[in-house]
Design goal:
α1 packs across α6, α5 crosses α7 and α8 runs parallel beside α17. The protein is mainly α and about 290 residues long. The chain contains 17 helices and two strands. The relative contact order is 0.12.
Length: about 290
């Protein structure tokens, strides 16, 4: 695509609380309900979208505590940058001629929202605190994944992949779309969330028993047919596509920075679903997060 064409579409859309410097921001707020819901709620709780600072650009994971504590959501001004490039050579360059910078504010805003709900809850044991961190990260993963479902046009996918960690994958999109139709958005959200929880705990995908429990609670009026069960099992594999280095090294580094010593496999080696079930605050928070997205 011509850069001039991309910018023309970027400028042709407007939305309350959108940022002109973010490429496709108004477009996504108009056409992508997950993107819109996350941004609107983040702003509602007092978040500020701020142009990304050097420390974040160099070591984004190290800045997570600053982001959630101050509710400052960093974005890359890719819209403004692209306009500056186009101004130098109008109607010449295409999107194939340069690698455009990506902005991950959708993911970071999800972290801020998770912290908003978790901060009112006190956890005492190391296992509860580790689970809290994993659920927060899994929520951000879930937001990235579900935001891909409405991206059915080339332009929608283009704008989304420049504002989201996850790029739309047709197979995953089809699975989540079919589950939303068959089980509803709440059950699909919870199934996606726990697919990532299992992945971030470096475990195999969840069992049919876990699927049954989630569907019974969040889609009580729907029948879990064999076909829908197969889609649930496919969805359970979505977490396996996370970068293995991120799942191991980055999580281990984060836990060490939070004061936990030991190997990552030792730190995560506990029955996290039992810990989740034993403290109703976990379910209360995940259901509140579901309401934001759905």
């Amino acid at each position: 695509m011509q850069i001039s064409e991309v910018l023309a579409i970027h400028k042709s859309h407007s939305a309350d609380q959108s940022h002109a410097d973010i490429l496709g921001d108004a477009f996504l707020m108009q056409t992508n309900p997950v993107y819109r819901n996350i941004k609107v709620f983040a702003l509602k709780i007092g978040s500020i979208y701020m142009e990304a600072w050097p420390q974040y650009l160099l070591l984004p994971f190290h800045e997570l505590n600053t982001i959630v504590a101050n509710k400052t959501i960093p974005y890359v001004a890719n819209g403004r940058m692209l306009q500056q490039v186009e101004n130098k050579r109008p109607n010449v360059l295409t999107t194939e001629d340069l690698r455009m910078p990506e902005s991950y504010h959708l993911h970071e805003a999800a972290h801020v929202i998770a912290e908003h709900f978790f901060k009112a809850v006190t956890f005492t044991t190391p296992q509860e605190k580790i689970l809290r961190a994993i659920v927060s990260e899994s929520f951000a993963n879930t937001v990235d994944a579900l935001a891909c479902v409405p991206a059915t046009t080339e332009m929608h996918r283009f704008f989304l992949e420049h504002n989201c960690y996850m790029h739309p994958d047709q197979e995953n999109m089809d699975v989540m779309s079919r589950l939303q139709q068959g089980l509803g958005p709440r059950a699909t959200f919870m199934l996606t969330l726990f697919a990532y929880v299992y992945a971030n705990f470096l475990r195999e995908t969840f069992s049919p028993d876990v699927i049954q429990q989630l569907v019974k609670r969040y889609a009580p009026d729907q029948k879990l047919t064999d076909e829908l069960l197969k889609y649930c099992e496919k969805l359970g594999q979505i977490g396996e596509k996370l970068d293995p280095q991120f799942r191991v090294q980055t999580t281990e580094m984060y836990l060490k920075m939070e004061g936990y010593d030991g190997e990552i496999f030792e730190l995560l080696n506990f029955p996290f679903m039992q810990v989740y079930a034993a403290n109703e605050n976990f379910r209360n928070v995940t259901e509140a997060l579901c309401e934001v997205v759905c």
